[in-house]
Amino acid sequence: MTVEDQLDILRRGTTEIISEEDLAEKLKLGRPLRIKLGVDPTASDVTLGWAVVLRKLRDFQRLGHTACLIIGDFTALIGDPSGKSKTRKQLTRKDVERNVKAVSEQFYKILDPEKTEIYYNKDWLGQMQFEDVIKLASRYTVARILERDDFTNRLKEQKPIAMHEILYPLCQGMDSVHLDADVEIGGNDQKFNNLVGRTLMTQYKQTPQVVLLCPLLVGTDGTEKMSQSLGNYVSILDTPNDMFGRTMSIPDDLILNWFELCTDVPMDEAKAIENPRDAKVRLAKEIVALYHSVEAADEAERYFVETFSKRKQPVDAEEATIPNQVVEDGAAGIAQLLVALELVESNGKARNLIKQGAVSVDGTKFTDPFGKMSVADLDGKILKAGKHKFRKLVAG
User: Fold this and answer.
1) Is the CB of residue 323 less than 8 Å from the CB of residue 396?
2) Alpha-carbon distance 208 to 336, whole Å?
3) For residues 298 and 64, what is the distance between their CA atoms, to the nearest angstrom?
4) Are β-strands 34-39 and 183-187 bridged in parallel, bridged antiparallel, or unpaired?
C-alpha cells in the first residue's frame, strides 16, 4: 500500500494531523511505527465515544504498525483537567484498579491482541523521586501551561486550579518520552497534552511524535459528548437489543457523523441512503455486528420492529432476576431496581425517569419515584425504562 493510500485511511474520522507531512515521512521509513494511545481508566465501560480513538489505533494496526496502549493507572489518580471547568474528584487506587480490570477485557473487542503492546504508566511515573518531578517541572513554563483554554477560563472566573492538575500534561508527555512514540492519537480535547509530549521529546533529543486528533462523539442526547456520567452513551458491552435501540434514538443530524466514527461503511455509501430511518437502521445494524455478530444485528432489528414499530410488549425481553438487595418485606423499590439492573446509573436518575412517566410495568406507567411493588406482582412482568430498555422480571 502506498503512503497516500495509508493516509487516505488514516484521515477518516480525524480533525487534525500535526503534521501530515511528518506522518508521511514516518510512513516512508518502511518499519512498523509505534502508535501511542493513552487511556485513563476513569470508568468501567468502553463506550462508542471511547471506541473512536481505539478504532483509529486499530486502523494503524491493519496497516502493519504497532499499537502501544498506555493504561493510565498513575495519571488516573491525578485526573485529566482537559475540558473541565473545575478540579476533578480524584479516584482512589481501588477505583482505578477496578476500572483497569474492567476495561482491559474490553479493548480486544476492537484491537488485535497480537499487534498490541500494553503498558501501565505507574511503572515509570510511579518510580520518579521528588527530585525527578522538580526537574520535569523545570522543562515547561507556567505561561505555556496557562495557555490552555480550560485553565485560562477558570482563572477568569476565579475558579481554583490545583497544582497537581498543572503536572498532568507533563506526566502524559513523559509517557511519550518513555515509549519514544512515533504517533500519538487523542481526542480533540487532548491537543494541548499531546503537544506537550512533542516538546518534551525534543528536549530529550527524540524525534517528536506526530499528533493525530479525533473528534469527540456526540452522545445519544444529540448535544453533549458521549459520557457515562451523563447517561447518553452506548457501551460496547450492551446487549444487541439495547445497542440497536439506543442507536436508533439518536437525532437524524448525527447519523453521518456516527457512520464515520463508529463504523467502517464507506462514506459515499452512507450518504447515498436518503431515508433517515433506513440510514439509522443500517447504522444500528453495523454497530451491533461489529461488537456482536451479523446474526445478532438481524435479530436486534427484528426485535426493534416488533417492539417499537408495532407497539407490542417484548415478550422475549432479556430476563433479569429481581436482586435481593432491593427487596424489603416482599416488595421491591422500583427506582432501586432500575439501578440494580443497570438500566440507569443512579437512584436520582431513576426517580427522574419515573417522574417523567418513562417507566412502566407491563405497559402501565409507574409514577411514584419512591414507590414499591410486591415481588409476586412483578414476577414475569415486563419492566420498561425510557424508550428502548426492557427487562422481563423473574422473582429471585
Assistant:
1) yes
2) 51
3) 32
4) parallel
CB pairs under 8 A, 24+ apart, for 135-140? 136/170, 136/174, 137/167, 137/170, 139/170, 139/199, 139/200, 139/203, 140/169, 140/170, 140/196, 140/199, 140/200
In SS3 terms, 68-137 reads as EEEECCCHHHHCCCCCCCCCCCCCCHHHHHHHHHHHHCCHHHCCCHHHEEEEECHHHHCCCCHHHHHHHH
CB count within 10 Å of CB 186 equals 23
Strands 183-187 and 210-214, how do they pair? parallel
Spatial separation of the C-alpha atoms in residues 180 and 161, rounded to whole Å:
30
- Tens of pLDDT, residue by residue over 134-158, are 999 999 888 888 887 778 888 888 8
Summarised one tens digit per residue, pLDDT across range 246-289 is 999 899 999 999 999 999 999 999 999 999 999 999 999 999 99
* Residues 357 and 351: beta-carbon distance below 8 Å: no
Q: Which three cell numbers stand for residue 338?
A: 432500575
Structural domains for the chain: 3-214 (3.40.50.620), 240-309 (1.10.240.10), 319-394 (3.10.290.10)
**Cβ–Cβ < 8 Å for 300, 316:** no
The Cα–Cα gap between 39 and 59 comes to 17
pTM for the whole structure: 0.75
Q: Supply φ then ψ for residue 320, to 5 degrees.
A: -145, 125
* Nearest-angstrom CA–CA distance, 365 and 352: 14
Nearest to 102 by CA among 42, 51, 48: 42
CA 175 to centroid of chain Cα atoms: 21
Task: Compute how many other C-beta atoms are within 10 angstroms of the C-beta atom of residue 153.
Answer: 11
**In this structure, what C-alpha cell is assigned to residue 25?**
515521512
First to last CA, the chain: 58
Instruction: Report the C-alpha gap between 92 and 381 in whole angstroms.
Output: 39
Distances, alpha carbon 359 to alpha carbons 194, 231, 266, 373, 384, in Å: 44, 16, 38, 13, 5
